[in-house]
Amino acid sequence: MARTLRTLTRLMGWSSVAIGLYHVLLGNAAIPGAGSAGTTVDSWGRFMGAVFVGYGLAWLWAARQRPVPAQAVRWLAGVFLLGGAGRILSLAVHGRPHWFQLVLAAIELGLPPVFFWLADTDERAAIGPATGPAIPGEGAYRASSR
Predict the structure, then answer these.
(1) What's the whole-model pTM score?
(2) Rounded distance, CA 113 to CA 104, Å?
């Protein structure tokens, strides 16, 4: 499971960097349906692309730590989940977007729970197997019966 976390963390980092650079370089052309949105939206999209590059670099930083820090994974996954929630809010307020935006929303809502579940697997693996009793209270019973 720790290997899965490390692999997914790297994948999130590199894909976020690539997507962010794509938006920085292409502006409105990177957003389905936004080709004629104008210079303000183009400027905003390129800026947000740069922010997404930074977000990806934060994922890559986390992936390079030994062990992968659970708190960083949870925060980064929470930001991703917030992005998905923003898409749902937009859907509720403005209606159905381009189909690709719905695919992205599904990823942004579906992937964070996986990261929340895996977040501490590398830290637990670094600690090693549990040394305490398998059943709560078992150790106290054994100690008192000797």
Answers:
(1) 0.81
(2) 15
Domain that residue 15 falls in: 2-128
Q: Among all chains, which residue has been given the structure tokens 């499971």? A: 1
- Domain presence at residue 27: yes
Mean pLDDT, the chain cut into blocks of 10 residues (146 residues total): 92 96 92 81 92 97 94 97 96 94 95 94 78 51 44
Contact 2, 125 (CB under 8 A): yes
**Nearest Cα residue to 27 out of 17, 13, 41:** 41
Amino acid 133: pLDDT: 52
In the numeric block, the tokens 């197997």 are attached to 129
Measured distance CA(98)–CA(6) in Å, rounded: 32
CA pair distance 146, 136, nearest whole angstrom: 18
Whether 141 maps to a domain, the answer reads no
CA distance 87 to 65: 31
How many angstroms separate the CA atoms of 46 and 57, rounded? 17
Neighbours of 115 (CB within 10 A): 21
Helix H or strand E encompassing 44: helix 39-64
